[in-house]
Every structure is written in C-alpha cells, then in structure tokens.
Amino acid sequence: MKQISGGVTAAKGFKAASTAAGIKYKNNRNDMAMIYSEVPCRAAGTFTTNIVKAAPVKWDKEIVTSSPFAQAVVVNAGIANACTGEEGFSYCSQTAKAASECLSIPEDSVLVASTGVIGMQLPIDRITAGVKAMSAILDGSEESGTAAAQAIMTTDTVKKEVAVQFEAGGATITIGGMCKGSGMIHPDMCTMLSFVTTDAAISKELLQEALREDIKDTYNMISVDGDTSTNDTVLLLANGMAGNKEITEKNEDYLLFIKALNFINETLAKKMAGDGEGCTALFEVKIIGAETKAQAVTLSKSVITSSLTKAAIFGHDANWGRILCAMGYSGASFDPEKVDLYFESAAGKLQIIENGVALPYSEDEATKILSEPEVTAIADIKMGNASATAWGCDLTFDYVKINADYRS
C-alpha cells in the first residue's frame, strides 16, 4: 500500500465539482460539492447514533439500504437541514430529482448530505441551481476533488483528503476520501461528513461490513467537545472500475482492502480531531496493557473527553492527575496503583508516573513535550495485551468564541 496525492477523485471513474450557491455564506465562497461516478456504485454507509437525525441522514439510510446502486452525492455547507420536518425531507427528494435530471441517473441513486446550522430550511432554489451548475463542470482531476473538499468546510480551518493505492485481484486498486468536521464531534459518529470512493470490485455485503467494523477504531474514537451531531454520515462508494477479481469472500484481497480502508478512515479521523474548533494540538491517548479491547476503548475515550485534561494540554501542563481521574470515572475497572503514564511528542518521551505514583521528572521537559502540535499520552494499566487509541484536541478560549456566535 502506498499513499498518493488526491482524495475523492483519485479512484478511476470518479469526478467532482463545487460551486458557490449562496446557501448561507455571503462571501461568495464555494458551499456545495458533488461527487459522481461514471458507472453505478455499490454503496455502504454509517450514520449518527443521535435520536435526532437530520433529513439527509434519513434519506441516505434508505438509499444505502434499499436502492440497487448509488452514483452521485450532493453536499451542502452552511445549513444542516436538521429538525426541519417534512419540508426538509422533501428538499432531499428535490435535490436528488435535480441531480437525476442533470446527470440522467435514477433519483434513488443520488445521496445527499448537509452540514451547518440546525433548524434552518434550505433555500431549495439555490440548491437545485447549484446542482445544475456542478453537473456541467464535473471533472476527474485532483484539483476538482480538492475544491470539493474545501467547499464542504464549515468551521474547519483546513481541507481534509487522502488517497492510497494497493495491488489486489490482479489490478491496482485506489481508495480516496474527503471529510469535514471540526466541532460538535464525539464518539459514536461525530459531526462529520466523510465520503470515501474506491474503484475496487467488492460485494455490497462485504463493503458494508468493512465500513461498519472500521469506524469502531477510527471515526468512533475521536472527540472534540462531547456533542454527538444530528448529521453524521460516512458514505463509501465502490464502482469496480479497477478491474480486479470481485472480492466476495474474506480472503487476502479483502484483508488488503480493509487495511487500506482503515488507513483512509484513520487519517481522516485524525485530521478532524487535530482541527477541532479553536484547538492548537492533536491529543492522542493510548491505553495499553488492557485486559480487553472494550476496557481500553472506554478508558481512552474517557480521557480525550475530559475538559480538565483538554485544558491542561492547551496549557502545556503535565497535570497527570486529571488523566488518572478521567480513567477512574470511566466505568472501566483497573488498579490505579499499577498504572504507568508517559507523555510523548516529536520533542521526546517522558514517563510521568510509575505504579500510580509521580516520578521526579523535569517540568520544563514535560512542557516542551506538551508544546508540540501533536501530543500523546500513553497509559499502561498492566492487565493484559489489549490496547486502544483515541484522538481529541486541546480546549482553548477560541472554542467558546467560535460557538458563542456560530449562527451569526
């Protein structure tokens, strides 16, 4: 497997476009994107666990479950189309109908996604005009894919995309993806939209299983602020244009596919955690020596969602007591008097506690390590061989500023 440049247009047969539809933003910035495959795709999807589900989530779940194939995705930024009732759901249908007419594909092959302010109705005339404009300029270039990744941003500060290639089934297979996500992010799907495309030939059943299992260790292991969104969506489209022998069983080709998919999803997940609203650092928490994977997952998630720990990371303060405290209220059992804790970054690695007791470490060295843009805390609980990694970010003054006036 090798990483290549690009995103959703990296795989064969995929095109993208973007446009400034004027949905909410007044600075003429692109706020709509479209992904299109030259041929029909097998589609898989995972969605928010929030009981309050946005209209696009409901629409996409039906398409992924019931439609024979998908071929296009229409995305808008600025308005989430959540808590909008029957009118909001009808706008999903109208968006799909517009794409169907412009692209000459079935209406039930069009997926839709929205991100932005909850409770506002979409300006459907601008949405359909945007669909028409994008349909005319679809392009398979890397630049077009990158522009699409930029168009779906809200409070994101950077575009997020990645692509890889690997050999399987007698062909070169490519997987690429783009996502957005910066705030209202919490495990069990976060306020994020992620779109992954591949030219692999793979059965719909295995495609869905691969995605469903992989999000457990990727998107579901990130948190920015503890808020699970109404719009979280991950869509995976496979058009088979690589020409590989179709993957229909869990053989070596399938293992290669899920390895590449994991790289895509983990990379995108970390990009979102590292771009948390107002943040200055990606905060990674590794729990090792756990008795079970579930125990390690619970402990790591508890630490990355601790506001006190996140604030300490922002202050470059090795306040290890907050980490042990967060582990202690997680609900997972462990012996705090056996825990070893380390901080690590590009500036070095430092053991802070051994068997639950502080070591004589240098505060200056600890501050230097914690001042890097990527910081890791490693907790060894000495109970077994299981492990888990979660990703979050520091909590800064700017997080409050951004969210205090988000609607305006």
Automatic annotation (TrEMBL):
Pathway the protein contributes to: Amino-acid biosynthesis; L-arginine biosynthesis; N(2)-acetyl-L-ornithine from L-glutamate: step 1/4; Amino-acid biosynthesis; L-arginine biosynthesis; L-ornithine and N-acetyl-L-glutamate from L-glutamate and N(2)-acetyl-L-ornithine (cyclic): step 1/1
Catalytic-site annotation from UniProt: T191
Residues binding substrate: T154, K180, T191, E277, N403, S408
GO MF annotation list: L-glutamate N-acetyltransferase activity; L-glutamate N-acetyltransferase activity, acting on acetyl-L-ornithine as donor
Gene: argJ
Keywords: Acyltransferase, Amino-acid biosynthesis, Arginine biosynthesis, Autocatalytic cleavage, Cytoplasm, Multifunctional enzyme, Transferase
Protein family: Belongs to the ArgJ family.
Enzyme Commission number, as recorded: 2.3.1.35, 2.3.1.1
EC top class named in words: transferase
Annotated localization: Cytoplasm
Site, Involved in the stabilization of negative charge on the oxyanion by the formation of the oxyanion hole: residue positions: T115, G116
Signal peptide: none
Biological role stated in the UniProt entry: Catalyzes two activities which are involved in the cyclic version of arginine biosynthesis: the synthesis of N-acetylglutamate from glutamate and acetyl-CoA as the acetyl donor, and of ornithine by transacetylation between N(2)-acetylornithine and glutamate.
A single cellular component GO annotation: cytoplasm
Protein name, entry field: Arginine biosynthesis bifunctional protein ArgJ
Assembly with partners or alone: Heterotetramer of two alpha and two beta chains.
SUPFAM superfamilies, per database record: DmpA/ArgJ-like
Alphabetical list of CDD domains matching this protein: OAT
Entries under PANTHER family matching the protein: ARGININE BIOSYNTHESIS BIFUNCTIONAL PROTEIN ARGJ (PTHR23100), ARGININE BIOSYNTHESIS BIFUNCTIONAL PROTEIN ARGJ, MITOCHONDRIAL (PTHR23100:SF0)
Gene Ontology BP, a term: ornithine biosynthetic process
Catalyzed reactions: L-glutamate + acetyl-CoA = N-acetyl-L-glutamate + CoA + H(+); N(2)-acetyl-L-ornithine + L-glutamate = N-acetyl-L-glutamate + L-ornithine
